Amino acid sequence: MMFATAVLLVLPFAQPPQPASGQAAPAPGVSAPAAPAQPPDQGTRAPATPLEATPLGPYLDNLKTLRASFLQTLADPKGREIDRAAGTLVVSRPGKFSWDIHPQPLAGGGGATAARAGAGQLMVCDGKNLWFYDRDLSQVTVKPVDAALSATPAMLLSGTVDVRKKFVFTDVGEREGLTWVLVEPQGAAEADFRSALFGFDHGNLKRMILEDKLDQTATIVFDKVARNAPVSAAEVSFTPPKGADVIGTPRK
Questions:
Q1: 3 state SS for the chain
Q2: Looking at residue 15, what is its pLDDT?
Q3: What residues make up the domain containing 141?
Q4: Does residue 249 belong to any structural domain of this protein?
Q5: Domain of 187: which CATH number?
Q6: Confidence at residue 194, expressed as pLDDT on a 0 to 100 scale
Q7: Which label site among 113, 117, 174, 211 has the fewest CB atoms less than 10 Å from its CB?
Q8: Quick one: average pLDDT of 56-62?
Q9: pTM of model > 0.90
């Protein structure tokens, strides 16, 4: 997974990716990702909604910390699943998060590497710097937060930016038992994604669907979610492992 893709934490209402025959089963305890039903086309989309009038507004207002496991699948522009991963998300507002992801195998070996111990990526925002650790390459990339993060869902959840200035929100109603909020970046040139959907069940974030600039779709299903539970400083900080190559200079 590339640096920009790893920071993505959703796709406008469009036809969901169709899993290929014989694909791997979802990780234990996590439901298989599924996109909402086909929405109205872009020309009939509802106008933007004030953040406070969507389920996302109260969710963010009351969010101090978040810890969750997740299953993420990535589909190409034709809807074929090309990657599958599992991981954990930790958020400590304002401005800190950890996104730890590990590859999972696909049946038939198509498009994904078999899961390996120690493989995957770790992204940590400690409030000053954004660290990206590629375990496969034993390489760390670091940049100051204001130079590294464009408009992404990770920034929105962690409170790194003024969300009302960086994003446009649209309440797009209920599909498949979830209430959906469409999130689009104000400045498309600055964003790593085109659009994002946040799916809520009784005020709890259950699913995210992301569409990136390559027309790939990442579907993230959350499980074992804990809101406003204690998060230690160590969970949202990072020290480069001994022997890893470090690219960039962190802000002190």
A1: CCHHHHHCCCCCCCCCCCCCCCCCCCCCCCCCCCCCCCCCCHHHCCCCCCHHHCCHHHHHHCCCEEEEEEEEEEECCCCCEEEEEEEEEEEECCCEEEEEEEECCCHHHCCCCCCCCCCCEEEEEECCEEEEEECCCCEEEEEEHHHHCCCCHHHHHHCCCCHHHHEEEEEEEEECCEEEEEEEECCHHHCCEEEEEEEEECCEEEEEEEEECCCCEEEEEEEEEEECCCCCHHHHCCCCCCCCEEECCCCC
A2: 32
A3: 3-15+34-242
A4: no
A5: 2.50.20.10
A6: 85
A7: 117
A8: 94
A9: no
